[in-house]
Amino acid sequence: MSLDTISCPICGSSNNKTLFKSKDFRLKTTSEIFNIVKCFDCSFLFLNPRPEIDKIGEAYTSDFNKSDQSFLYKIIEPIFNLAQKSTIRMLKSYKKNGKILDIGCGNGTFMLAMQNSGYDVWGVEFNKDAKKYTDNSLKDRIFYDDIKECNFPPKNFDIITMFHSLEHIYNINDLLVEVRRIIKDDGVLFICVPDADFFEFRLFGPYNYNLEVPRHLYFFTPKSLRELLQRKGFISGRLLNKSIFELILSPASLYHVVWNFFDDKKILINNIVKNITFIPLVIARFFLCIFFIFNRQNIEMVCQRSKTDALRNYL
Prior knowledge:
The strands form three sheets. The chain has a seven-stranded mixed sheet, sandwiched between helices. With about 325 residues, the protein is of the alpha/beta class. About 30% of the residues lie in helices and about 20% in strands. It is built from eight helices and 13 strands.
């Protein structure tokens, strides 16, 4: 896989140091080893070097956006649905209706939920294979292209959302410039990304399940996300409170950490042993989340293009 060395996407500095190295444990699309680096000047964490833009697609399998049908997901699916309803209620507190754009919409699950809540929904998805797993009612409302090629009118959307997509975006600066152009003056931008301050990132480093290199190109903290948004013309946003749902998000992540370690060390373990350790490690992860109760697994941030009376009470 061809790699491209970059400067810091936030401050432009070329001075950085490698924190640790990791690889694609989850999908195993490449055997390449990747550096997670920290900028000396602004402390932002990012992948460097990273796959070239015409090669990044190789890191995604054709079924990447297929709905999870695993037994574990079926158990916790009701909790995810409750979390989604909580997010919709939050967005409705800003905008009871209007036009919404979901960037990195995948198979359109959130779009369908917002449509059922009375919104005029649109989406942008960079993985064309996602179309195979998308409801037919949405296929004419999703653009499978770079957002700049979609030619949206200026100040067109009341709400723009990015659920676990910003960390995947190759040119985040260009993206946010375009987002600022197409969102209304009193529009709401909602971003959800993994938190690099979360205990799993700090304790388990290269084996962290949510690291997911090379698909994740950036690793945000609340501070670095705010700084990026401010540099692109957005007013510093409201950081949403940690949700009770975070206690059960990614329940098997510790299990994957353990087996990522053994995989990296080329230690072969019998599948029966793996299966036996699954439930104990899920339980151990739950208690770790309680111990690190003030950690947040994800950053959820609401910000705006310009101050208005409608949003001032929330900032």
